Amino acid sequence: MPTGVAVVEQDTLEDVANCVVAIMVTVKGSRDLAPEFGVPDLIFTNQPIGVHDLLISSQEPRAELDVEERFDMADPLTDVVTMKVSTQTKKQVR
Question: Residues 3-40: pLDDT tens digits?
Fold first, then answer.
């Protein structure tokens, strides 16, 4: 049985993707030490798909998102949002 803590190398795609997930599953205001972290409670709201990109890019500038939205064919009241995360290429500063 594994013991210890899982470690992800900083600035890798996995690190950035984990940060995006942390942002999306945290309701804004739920962390006392970082009240601006996370997203507003989006349950039962009809938000334009671009809102997700803006919310994440303001908190995780390393992430580039490709966000897709579709309705669930089995349940027309369900909206499925898929986020594909990639990392920005590092630009040289002159």
Answer: 778 888 999 999 999 999 999 899 999 999 999 999 88
- CATH fold for domain 13-87: Nuclear Transport Factor 2; Chain: A, (3.10.450)
d(CA 28, CA 51) in angstroms, rounded, equals 14
Ramachandran sector of residue 8 (left: φ over 0; alpha: ψ -120 to 50; beta: rest): beta
To which residue do tokens 């013991």 refer?
3
Please give the single-letter amino acid code of residue 42: L
Q: Which two tokens stand for residue 4?
A: 């210890």
Q: What is the pTM of this model?
A: 0.76
Whether 40 contacts 28, CB under 8 Å: yes
